[in-house]
Structure formats: C-alpha cells, structure tokens
Amino acid sequence: MGASALDRNGLRSYSLWSLSWPIFIELFLATLLGTVDTLMVSRVSDDAVAVVGLSNQLFNGLNTLFMTITGGAGILVAQKLGSRNPEDARTIGIIAAKVTGCIGLGISALLFLLPDQIARLIQTPEELLPLAHTYISTAGCALAPFALSAAFSTVIRNTGNTRGPMLTAVVINLLHVLFNYGFIFGAFGFPKLGLHGVAISTLSCRIIMMLILAYMFVGAFERKVGIADIRLRDRKLFKEVLRIGWPLGVNSSCWMLSQMIIFVFLATLGAKELATRTYMNTLESFCFMLGFAIAMAVQIQIAHHFGAKKWQEAYRGAYKALYIGLAVVTVNAGLLALLGKWFLGFFTDDPDIIHMGVSLLALNMLLQPGKMMNMGFNSGLNAVGDTRFPMTTSLFSMWIVAVGLSYYFGLHLGWGLVAIYCCMIADEYVRGFLAFLRWRQRKVLKREEHAEWLRLMPAAAQSHGSSHAGAAAASAPKPARPLNV
C-alpha cells in the first residue's frame, strides 16, 4: 500500500499501517543496535561500558530539552497540514529546527568545555574520570547535530513521511556499527582508538544523519525551505509550540527521573535484582515496540484529523489504535512468557536471576495491555493539544504510585522486586484509565466543534438574510449544531 493518498477533500490520507511500520523498524533498529553497541564497547573494557552507560543517562536526560520544542512542533505541523495551512506548518518546522539547534549548540559547548566538572556532577567514580573526560567531551559534541536531527525527523514524520527517517536510521545504524568496529579493532584502515574512537564514531554518524535529514527537510513542504528562511520568525506560532510542548518535556523528564529512582531502589535490594530488571528492560522493549509505533502513528493521524476538523475520525482513531495495539502486545507478551527462560539464557546462566526474570515475564502479560492503553489514549490527547492532562496525571501517578508505593512495598515492607514491578504495572493502568476517561469526555473535541459552529453561524445567518426568496435562500449553507458527543 502506498504511503499516502488523497481523500475526497484533497487532503493527504495516511493509513495507520503505512505510518506505523516505518516507525516500528526505526525503533527496532535503534534498540537492536543499542544492544550491539554495548556489546562492542565491552570489548574495550568493563570500565568503558560503565562510562558509556553513565554518560548516556546524562545525554538522554538532556534530550528531554529538545522534546519540549520538537514534540510540540510535530503535533502542530500535523494539525496545520490537516487544516490545509501548509505555510504555517512550514514556519513551525523552521522555527523548531532553529531553536533546537541553538539549544543543542549550547549544551554541546558546555560538555566540550567542562567534561570533568560534569563527570563529577553525575557521580562518576574517580578511577573512571579520565575515560569520562574523553567520552563526554567528544560524544557530547554530537548533541548539537542530534538536536537538529530530532527536529528534522519529527517534522518530516508528522508530514506523513515516516519512511524517510526510517531509511535514514537504517543507514546510520549500519555506519555506526562499521565505524565502531573500525575504531575499536583498528579495522578497515581506521586507527585503533578504543573508547575515544567510539565517541568519534557517535559524533560522525550524528553529523551524517543530520545532513541526510536536512536534505529531506528542505523538500518536506509544498514550498522548499531555503537559507533565507533562517531569519523567519513568528512569535504567535512559537508560543503555540511551547504551549503544547512544555508539558511533553516535563512528562518525559518525570518518567526518566522516576525510572532512575526505581533503579536506585533495585540497587538497594541487591545486584541480582538490579540485573534482572535490566534484562527485563531489554526484553520488554522488544515486546511493546510495535504497540509504541502504533501509538506514535495514531498521534500523527489524529492530529491531521483534528486540524481538518474531522472530529469523529479523530475520536475513533484512538480506539482503533488501542484495539490493534492490545492484540499485538498481548500476543508478544504471551510469546515472551512462554519463551522467557530461553531468552534470559542469552544474558545469564544465574538460576536466581532466571527464576526472578520468569516471574516478571508472567507479570509482563498484565503490564503490556495497561501500557498500550496508556500510550494509545495519551497519544490521542497529545494530538489534539491536551498535553497538560497527561503531564498532571504523570506527576501524580509516577511519583505516588510507581515511586512511592515501590518504596513502601518493595523496600519498607521488604516485599522486593515483584512488589516494585506490580507498582509499575499499577502506574500504567492508573495513567491509562485516567487518559481513557479524559478521551471519552471529548473535552477538547467538543470545545473545538462548538467554536467552529459559532464561527459559522454569523456567515450562515448573513447568507440566509440577504436572499428572502428563491433558490439562493434555499441553498444557503446552514451549519448543523454540534452533536452532543
């Protein structure tokens, strides 16, 4: 099936499948290559793995700053294209790229100039500081091109072109493996540079990715983006981006911080519990990846419908994604539970870790439907601009249910890893159920539909009053009152 088609109104129409499968492949490759990357770095030394892992936690945290801009911009681009306003969509995309690029340059400069201070700030052990200096100062410079890449890919994806970023990810991930192999082992004529080579590989691949996506970004809209557009400004549109985007940034930061704290709880329980949860993270990510791709795709689809004032299609889209996603993640979780012992054997031969892992994989069958409900309905809320509600529920549920109850049951009462995992399951269902109730109320959809009805009323009344007789009066447009949906 083609990536796009034209509907009867002349708007681009994207199926959930055509949007989601490229996103899935992109996510799958990122997860798979991340695992391969860690295995390759382990050939340098265990200390190198520790430095890369610790530094990546820092980089991932800083990436949430870009989410504030790119997340809001992506949603608005889809809405503006849906409302047949490609110039506003183009302006938003350009502004997002400029702002995230500036933020990325600032952060990269700090990481390059102050690597030792930053390494100590994130509690890097003293013996790892020389390696941390090398890695943070070099790989940290990659945040600038990564920021621009995040802006380009988000905007491109929300125009409906999910294949472009996917194909770019395929090329870059393969290059990253080749560069890592060359720099670590001195192959293909590369100098053998160890961890410094891995950092150079990361920086090089991020720059190449930025250039490829920049080329796609130039032609992403009806009117090509040019150098002169760097001066483009629109304070009103930028305020819209921030209005939608800052809750997304807070939500992402909240999730990352809560997960880090839960990992501290697990470390308190012991090394085996921490290792079990680490292996589970990897297995779970493969389990819900297609569901996450569906949630990302439906966000694009609903935002297009919302911009096009197709209220019913927007509302039903979240349910359609939920039904498909539930079927997918349930099957995946069932297969993982059946084959879990075999999969865990790839990571460890410790019988205690395998036993705990198999128990968690059984509970994972409860987790995945809740996670899908959470992702599906919150994606719908984000798509219509109702981003503050997911942020508010996350602040409540993540800190009270996930973190608070994990501490109480897991550490205070001593019920351990299974109790902590159950609290994480409860958090997903609480957020998912609250998002379902909010979506079912159709608060934003009703408000926008009513505003559109009020906007059309004067025009309809004027058209009706200007012709007292004849076919003109009979054919005057009369807007229907909004349905009580």
Automatic annotation (TrEMBL):
Chain ranges passing through the membrane: 21-41, 61-79, 91-114, 134-155, 167-190, 196-221, 241-267, 279-300, 321-347, 353-370, 391-409, 415-437
Its membrane topology? Multi-pass membrane protein
Q: Which CDD domains match?
A: MATE_like_8
Please name the GO terms that the record assigns under molecular function: antiporter activity; xenobiotic transmembrane transporter activity
UniProt entry keywords in alphabetical sequence: Cell membrane, Membrane, Transmembrane, Transmembrane helix, Transport
GO cellular component terms listed in the entry, alphabetical order? plasma membrane
Give compartment(s): Cell membrane
Against PANTHER family, the record matches this protein to: MULTIDRUG AND TOXIN EFFLUX PROTEIN MATE FAMILY, NA+ DRIVEN MULTIDRUG EFFLUX PUMP
What is the name of the protein in this document? MATE family efflux transporter
- Which species? Paenibacillus rhizovicinus
The root-end lineage is:
Bacteria, Bacillati, Bacillota, Bacilli, Bacillales
